[in-house]
Amino acid sequence: MAKMTYYIVRDVIEKHPVIETCEVSLEDLRDEFNIEAVKKQCKFCFLDVFLEESPFDLDHNQEILDLTVLLDISLDTFEEIIQDSRPRLDDYQEYLFILFKSIGKHPTEIDGKSEHQCGLIIDENILMSIHVGIPLPLDKLFRLFNRNPQMLIRGGITYLSTTYFDALIDPTYHVLDGWRKLSDDIEWSILSQKRVDQQTTLSRLIGIRESIFDTVKILQADREVVNRMKSPNMPIFKKEFIPPELDDHIRHLLDEQDILRATISDLMNLFFNAESSKTNRVLSRYTFVTSILLLPSLIAGIFGMNNIHFPQISFWWVLVIMVSCMGGLWFLFKKKQLI
Predict the structure, then answer these.
(1) Domain 2-274 carries which CATH code?
(2) Which of 33, 114, 213, 240 could lock 28 by a disulfide, CB 3.0 to 4.6 Å apart?
(3) DSSP-based three-state secondary structure for 218
(4) Any idea where the domains of the chain sit in the sequence?
(5) In this structure, what DSSP letter does residue 14 have?
(6) 49-98 residue pLDDT tens
(7) pTM for the structure as a whole
(8) Distance CA 207, CA 237 (A)
(9) Could you confirm whether domain 283-334 is CATH 1.20.58?
(10) Which DSSP letter does residue 312 get?
């Protein structure tokens, strides 16, 4: 089921854009809100297409087939948006195609991550966003434009698309905060020598580390997309309206993840050292008990020999000697003379 919402800037009144918001259906796209008709009636517009359920069988999904016709997009493009995992920017003859990705959930297990992928199609003065699984807070995004309406008016598609990318990147900050808090909890549990589930703790550390690797790759690819937008080969974008803070945000997140990745590696070393220390303490106890019993065992072995030439001695005297030896060893241990 597809949910489609138009955000249309039809006019500018007293230097403020008039943004019209309306949800549309497939029938609306065929008639009143036909793509070509809307493009001629507005300065620029944003069409958000949210696919609530992943259409696994694209060839037999009639709604998707209808959308490809109404939006003038090939079925292969829909398939790339849903299945391709490479953020990129492609300049086709008919339109500009962008794949952008973000992380929406911080995992505590290896398979707990949630990635959000969005496909954007830019054609003249219209920007179409197609995504699956997670609705985006676009109302909040468009309310932000009221703070600086002149940037939206002058920047047009460039300012709209880059601000949209920035909104996609923002959840990564919450992801890092979640990882950081979880790593602090794990560190505290290790240092305080609490009883922890070894398998769960190790699984969480490995899960965070693997997800950090994936997130770094995604952010690096997203950064390449932003940098390519600044290329002279992309005349559709007004370079002066690509905010420098967008690249700064991505670089800052990459730096934060490098620090967090080092922290997780240190935590894994701390975890293994703590487990090794526990094993050493157990072995030291066994070694101490063995050392205490070593001399009495030797005495028992000697007096237990079946040898007719060995001097006879009472069992009780042997027992007294053994206990005396154990007591002496214990006394020396308490006085720190026996290490």
Answers:
(1) 3.30.460.20
(2) 33
(3) helix
(4) 2-274, 283-334
(5) T
(6) 888 766 567 777 788 888 888 888 888 888 888 877 788 888 887 788 99
(7) 0.73
(8) 39
(9) yes
(10) P
